[in-house]
Amino acid sequence: MAAIYAAPTTTLTDEKVQIKLSGFDPGSKVTVRSFLPEPGLHFEAHGHFVVDGNGEVSMEQNPSLGGTYTDVEPMGLFWSMTQSPGQKLGLRFAKKDVTIPMQITLSVHKGHLDISALQTDVPIAKTQIQKTYMRPGVDIIKVRSGRVRGKVFKPKGPGPFKGVIDMFGGSGGLIEFRAALLASRGFAAYALPYFGYEDLPDMVTDMEPHELEYFEEATDWLQSQSYVQSGGIGVCGVSYGTVVASRMATEFPEKISACVNISGNCVNATLPMSYKGKAIPYLGFDYSRLKTTEGGLISTYDFLDPLETAPAEAIIELEKAQHLLFFVGLDDKNIPTPVFIDGAERRLKALGCNNYEIVRYPGCGHLIEPPYAPVTLVSHFKFAGGIIDWGGSLREHQRAQEHHWPKLLQFLDKYVGSQTTSHQSLHSNL
Questions:
Q1: Which residues contact 151 (CB under 8 A, 6 or more apart)?
Q2: pTM as predicted
């Protein structure tokens, strides 16, 4: 009997799934489809296969000949997902309610079909799996202390667990998926919003000046919790969140023992900041430098002023941080991350520092996220007012995501709570 099998049937998002077909006619052509319905959006992927002489297809052994991905890619049916037809353009997959597992249907169809035909074709075999960002047993604690907001995700039990503050960039709001996954990997992870949530300012541009005391208060609150290990908090930021994360790591380094910079900057950019009543200059921007590409996408790459024009006080003194890890997509089209992080490296080298590691990924764009969820190369971005090009090519970007995630976990596990000023030299280039 023709069937499709998947194991395990319930996994974390960052875990692999084995998919196999059996009982099909040898030499026949089939399309394998994955379909992920979420509130307000549907994503899907598909691959074209030829059944082998034993009537089988294995995602680990047989190449896809067409579809949303090609070649042998065991997890291609997950990371190559694109939005289903008939929806508004520019959707980004970002799990909103991490307490509800993703229900993914895997189906097999006769012939090599395209995405349009798959919308109505009746499958000859199907099965369903669950993928989730939150392991059963993870506790969720809503934070409303003083002026800080957000949610903490932590393993069940008293701990103590290594504490990590997790922040995103210009999208705003409370983004939970990475914090939930960090908690599933053993950390007490605080998803920290700083605008667009509850009574916080609506837009990032409404926060002028951007007071670092808010983030210090969040750090102190997290460190004071009985379930959090002493010895320093980790902070993880992406895009504009890296500016805040890096400032935290350098303005109060005795409290931040590890800082992860994903697709970020080495200067205060876009917005003014202040700390202890002192204004911190910033690298400006100009909306008139937004461009529209031939494909109709908005390019923000030249939005910021050139790095060499940054005021001296805007340059983040990264040498003051305890431990730093940078992830850089060399095809980032959102901001010139390679230029900024090259600048950071020049500064750190000139000062004789060895408290950092920089990982550079060819073919990788801006949104470097945990692996095996749908890769986002373009999406709507409220700050830019349209659909922007984040950069990267599908396969290379996924390779970067797959490599960066265990490295990030290892870095946080090693240095969060270390409360040390001794550094070791680290260098990595792919």
A1: 140, 141, 142, 143, 174, 176, 179, 190, 191
A2: 0.94
